[in-house]
Every structure is written in C-alpha cells, then in structure tokens.
Amino acid sequence: MIRLELSFRGILAIALVLVGLWFLIQLWPLLLILTTSFIFMAALLPYVEWMVRRGINRVAAVVIILVIILAVLGSMIAIVAPAVVDEFRDLRANLPDYARDVETFASDLGFNTERWDLPERAAEIDWNRIISGSQVVDYGQRVLVGILTGLTVAVITAYLLVETHRLRAFLFRFIPPEREADAQHFLRALERVVGGYVRGQLITSLIIGVYTTVVMLLVGVPNAIAFGVLAAFADIIPLVGGIIAVVPASIAAFQESPTQALIVLVALLVYQQFEDRLLVPRVYGQTLNLPALVVLLAVLAGAELMGVVGVLLALPAAAAGRVVLDYYLDRHASGRLAADESVEVLAPDEPRAG
Fold first, then answer.
1. Which of 8, 62, 68, 254 could be stapled to 161 by a disulfide with Cβ–Cβ 3.0 to 4.6 Å?
2. How far is Cα 87 from Cα 248, in angstroms, rounded to an integer?
C-alpha cells in the first residue's frame, strides 16, 4: 500500500512538471515580454523616485520619462532611416565604381589585384533578387510585430513603475518575516546590477555616438549625425556591436575617398580599444562582472530565442541571473559558516548535551 502511494505521488509529480513545462512553452513570449519590462523598470525606477521626491506625482513622473524615451527613439529613427536609405541607393548605383576604387587603392598598397575582378562582379549582382517583394513584406511584418511588442513592453513597464510599492507589498505577503531582510537585500542587488548595466550602456552609447559624429564631421562625410546615432545603437549589441559601428561609417567614408575611409576606420578602431579597455571597466565597475564565456553563451541564447531583441537583453538577463546565483552561494556559505562555528563552540573537554 505504501509503495503504491509513493508510486502515485511520483507519477503525480512528473505529471505536474510536464504540465508546468507545457505552460512555460506556451507562455514563453509573454514571459520574455515581462522579463524585458522588469529590466526597464529596474533601470528607470531611480529616476522616477527622484522625481517623486521632488513633489511630482508618480503617474506624471512615469509618463514624462516614457514620453522622453519614446521621443528620443523616434527622433533617432527619423535621423537614421533616411540616411541609410540614401546610402544604400548610392551604393547600389555606384558599386562597380567603388569596387574599381578598392582595386586601385589595394594596388597602390602593393596587393596583386589582377584576378580580383571586383568591378565585373559588382556589376553582375542581381539586386532585384536580393531585395524581392516577398522579403520586403516579410521584413515589414517583422517591423510591425516589433513595434507592437515595444508598445506592450512600454505599457507594462509604466504599470510596474506606477505600482512598484503595491507590488512590493504584495510580494512580501508571501515571504516569512525572518526572510524579509534577505529579500530586501536581494531586490536591491537586482535593481543595482540590472539597472546599473542599462544606465551604464546608455552612457557608453552616448559617448560613442558623439565621438563618431565628430569624426565624420571632421573628415567631411555626409550624414555624420546619422552614423553617430547608428554607432550608438550598435554599441548596445554585445560582441558584434563594434563591427556594426565601424563598417557602415567606413563604407560611407570610402564613397568620398579611400583616404577618408582609412581615417574613419582607424579612428573608430582606436575608440573601440579605448572603450573596451578603459571606459567600460570604469562605467560598469563591478556591476556586470560576467566571464567572457557567459557573455558569449548569453548572447547566443538571446539571439536564438528573440533575435536582435534577445541579443540586446541577453546581458541584463545574465546579470540578473548572476545576482540570483550570488545570493544562493552567499546563503550556502553563511549556512556552512554557522554550522562550523556551532561545532567549534563545543570544545573537546566540554561535556555534550544529552
């Protein structure tokens, strides 16, 4: 009878786990949206609290911040999109000439370009096949879905910012009183790490955007502000963001002259080294503190799950995971230390209880 009862409990536990996994898979898009909203909430909460302390209504503070963010994003897209379209049209129309300039420039540097045939290959590109009507419709649908998802995230983020204290009080109803201090510490650490990462990323993006704009203006490349904004966007993307920031700007400069392209390429590569070695460690400090392998795996997992959006959210999510892991390890270490101290209290010559 006991064995049958244990077997029934085991089957029931397995069934509950499978049902939970099924619900997790079905609700996975919603969970990703909620995770994204919590990340933005952690980043924006200090600014909301700052405005509330200065007498601004909480709802008004949240609305002001979100309107500013949406206005900035809309302005950046309005600047970048026309410039990208113009550069693409120019590249498509003059690609054979640019390919010929590349061969000439490489030949002047001492490379043997007799077998490259770059102008001929550029002239043979079938642009209509590369950019077909079905692909345009497909990308249009993706953009529409992305816009709707972004608006959903904005609405949920606004709700979380407005109802922060109520949500916190509701959460602590399920936490025993003796664990409230640990929960408070955990939430503060989560807010510091995730919010600190997002705010630090905004700082580095602003710096590379301004730097790229100044370089392009000094060299005399058209649409300098657009390429600065594009570099700021690209800087958010881990691992490959540096390449995305450098390549379009260098191509645009090459359309003016190979010398200008070389200056832009060197200037942006030098900045990448400055950002990686000096700026990022100072801005983030110990906020992120993730091994390179974890960063790579997080980015790959984010790209597989959500595409570009997943890549952007990979490191904040990984940082949150590190907070959870650190909390567990600290609790485990504290438990072991308490156990060791309790053993040391009983000296060998003292009688044990019982």
1. 62
2. 9
**260 Cβ contact list (under 8 Å, min separation 6):** 219, 220, 221, 253, 254
Tokens of 78: 């309005």
- Element (H or E) spanning 158, and its range? helix 133-162
The one-character DSSP state at 293 is: H
Q: Which two tokens stand for residue 189?
A: 């650490």
Nearest to 40 by CA among 188, 232, 195, 146: 195
Please tell me the distance from the alpha carbon of residue 81 to that of residue 169, in angstroms, as a whole number. 44
Q: What is the pLDDT of residues 157-208, one digit of tens each?
A: 998 888 888 888 877 777 787 777 777 777 777 777 777 777 778 888 889 9
pLDDT in tens, 80-122: 888 777 777 777 777 777 777 777 777 776 776 666 777 777 7
pLDDT of 34-78, one tens digit each?
878 887 888 888 888 889 998 899 999 999 998 998 888 888 888
Find out whether 215 and 262 touch, Cβ atoms under 8 Å. Answer: no
Percentage of the residues of the chain whose pLDDT score is greater than 90? 6
Calculate the alpha carbon distances from 167 to 34, 92, 173 in Å: 14, 54, 10
Spatial contact of 198 and 40, defined as CB atoms under 8 Å apart: yes
**What tokens were used for 258?**
């190979």
Instruction: Supply the pTM of this predicted model.
Output: 0.67
Burial state string for 245-264 with b = 16 or more CB within 10 A and e = fewer than 16: bbebbbbbbbbeebebbebb
Alpha carbons 305 and 276: distance in angstroms, whole number:
27
Name the maximum alpha-carbon separation found in the chain.
94
Phi-psi region of 110 (alpha: psi -120 to 50; beta: other; left: phi over 0): left
